[in-house]
Design a protein that fits this description.
121 residues; mainly beta; 0% helix
Length: 121
């Protein structure tokens, strides 16, 4: 059984900052990529940022220069530091992890339950 638990969401004023955290727990052998996605009301879920096990990162254009993704492999944790927040960043943010639960196991993507980030203008 694998669980991803996010924290750090809430209400933030435009121009402010927030930091999301996500920790994977349970029977985990290794984690490959981890990432953050978001879904605004009435819109499809979109990629925000991803980070490989080695630390290479990728961002959607709309957050480049404002958001930073990082991770601690020893703690199975990924963070998303969000600065200069805008009302259009309002969404439910989900973390995910591509992992396997045993040495010969298949890679599978697990998702967290989501955390709400609301940016007021």
């Amino acid at each position: 059984q694998v669980h991803l638990v996010e924290s750090g969401g809430g209400l933030v004023h435009a121009g402010g900052s927030a930091k999301l955290s996500c920790t994977a727990s349970g029977t985990i052998f290794s984690i490959n990529d981890m990432g953050w996605y978001r879904q605004a009301p009435g819109k499809q879920r979109e990629l925000v940022a991803t980070i490989t096990h080695g630390g290479s990162t990728n961002y959607v254009d709309s957050v480049k220069g404002r958001f930073t993704i990082s991770r601690d492999n020893a703690k199975n944790t990924v963070w998303l530091q969000m600065n200069s927040l805008k009302p259009e960043d309002t969404a439910v943010y989900y973390c995910n992890a591509d992992l396997r639960t045993q040495y010969y196991g298949l890679w599978h993507v697990y998702w967290g339950q989501g955390t709400q980030v609301t940016v007021s203008s």
